[in-house]
Please model this.
Amino acid sequence: MNTDEFTVNDEVETVQPKPEKKSASCSVTGNALFNCALTASVIVLYILHFTAPKAPVFMPKEIVGEPGSGETVFVNLDTINEKYELVTILTGDIQAEMARQEAIFANKEKTFERKYNQFQENVNAGILTQVQMEHSQRQLMQEYQQLEADKERVFNDLQLRQAMALTQIYDSLQAAVRRINIERNASFVITYQNQSPFLLLTDPAKDITDYVLFELNRSYKYKK
Model:
């Protein structure tokens, strides 16, 4: 046997690991994603800048006329409602019409009640056939529905008239106060009523109710 075959070579070649090369495609992809994200962020900021609601800017109102004296005066609405002629005429007409309509519909309701009671008596007495009973029921129902519809329409009209009258009274009161305040130049004119829980005490020297009432009645008589 050849001894050379059993000789172990001590010089073992050391194999060094080769360094891995980074993929160029990965680097390019990463840069592209970063650039896309940056571009998207810029676009979003641009949109928000030009589309986001702007904070309101305070614009003071232009002062018209001379400032008031700082005085506060009062008008008693109870007195105006009691003694202003236009209030008496407008509300008096509406109240009279309301009372008249209430009497009319009270009579209509009594008439209907008599018809209904007679129908019940006929049913209990057995003098109506099934067809007659159904026909009477339909008639009574239609009559009742029509009565209620007419009643609602009439009183809705009266309420509308009352609201329009109150608006007319308030407008004339406001106009009279403005005319009176031309000379007095008070900063505040407040209305109150005797039973108002919000105003417990008023200074008689600041109460201009009599002046306003005189102006209201004087102007109303002049217009007539």
About this structure: The chain has five helices and two strands.
